[in-house]
Amino acid sequence: MIGRAPRAVGSRSVVVNASRVLIAAAVAIAALAPLACAGTEEFSTFSVEAQEEDDESLIDHLLTRPPQAWDGEWERAPLALRTAQGCLTSGQWINETELRLRTDLGTRAWFGLNLRQNEDDRNTYNYLDLSFHFPTRIGAIGAMFRPFHDKSRQDFAVMWDLGADTTRFQLRAVFGLEDMFNNLWEFRQARVGGISEPYLRHPWEPALQMVLRPQGLRVEVGGRYLTPSTKRVYAPGGQRLATLWGTLAWASIEAQALGTTWEVRSTNHQAASTDHPAAVPQPDGRDFRRQWSIETAARRQVTERLYAEARWLYQERTEQHGAPVWPPRFEAADRVIQLEAAWRATSSLDLKLGGLHDRIGVRPSGVTLTSRYGTRTESRAYIGLMTRFGRVRLQGVEGIELDHEPYEVWLVHDKGFLQLQATF
Q1: DSSP 214
Q2: Domains of the chain, with CATH numbers?
Q3: What is the structure's pLDDT at 32?
Q4: Dihedrals φ, ψ of 9, to 5°?
Q5: What is the pTM of this model?
Q6: Phi and psi at residue 16, in whole multiples of 5°?
Q7: What is the 3-state secondary structure (H, E, C) of 249-265?
């Protein structure tokens, strides 16, 4: 018995140490917080036809992205801000902002604040997420509250996190309770924008996100599912029934091999809705939209100060309408090639030169929505400066169109883009 006692103590020590490691990992998780909590607005405002208002929409979105070199710092920072603006048309901007803050909530628990704002030709939403996280021996459990001016739109979520941004495995599972106060546990009708819109079938939104980080490799997969919902809309023109459903899935792989960083990523965004008079079930005004893409890239350090990148992206957009909306169908496909070289002038200043070529095909199918620009080719050269001031990173990009535009242009047609990232 004397010989066994040390082994028992050691066993308990291993259990205690393992528990401390799991708790520390749970406390450290932050990077997944804004990605897995979505809302109905990301699907109700989603459109693929609206992107035809800008004849170079996909190119503009690519140049609005924050630089890939910033991703590692962003993923590991519990206190961070990043924002990106890009020119769409003469009167519209892409506006993407994300703020992530956290503070202690007792000895090990913490409080998180995540702000996400998105305004562009794809969808529009504005989320302020207030969350509470409590570490356990098997991850951290949490709850989130998302306030809105319209009480019926306020969202809640419960979540479970395992792993951290520094571990090889990271997981987040979320169950969202959408529009929680819309006639749920109420004795009076909720009101949305002055119009009563009670749910006959309430939406929920489960989500899952997983990240793997073995040596020289990063793999991420995730998805959100907005369950089908049905609303009764009491409007001045009479009662209507409105439905909504949606999915969003993404996956990416990044690997280091042969002195090159290889990347593959894919996304699939879908939404379907109907809106028709309650007394007339047909026609239903169905609107189904889908946008999916596959993207590959290779980045390599050519010399001590010179980096080069090649990127290829294929994207399809489809929107199908049911009667009485006419015409019923829109289809388009983008094929983009991007080449870029970056020269490091100093330790805090990089100069970028690049070009993009997009072949956009608008395919007719039956009676097809007439595209404003139709099948076309868009090409652009750009120059950019990327710099750093302490913990603030800044990049500015100026793009010059290389094609003849179907609208009046003064001298040259240029577009500007700006990205900022700060950690605290």
Answers
A1: -
A2: 51-130+200-423 (2.40.160.40)
A3: 53
A4: -60, -45
A5: 0.86
A6: -60, -45
A7: EEEEEEEEECCEEEEEE
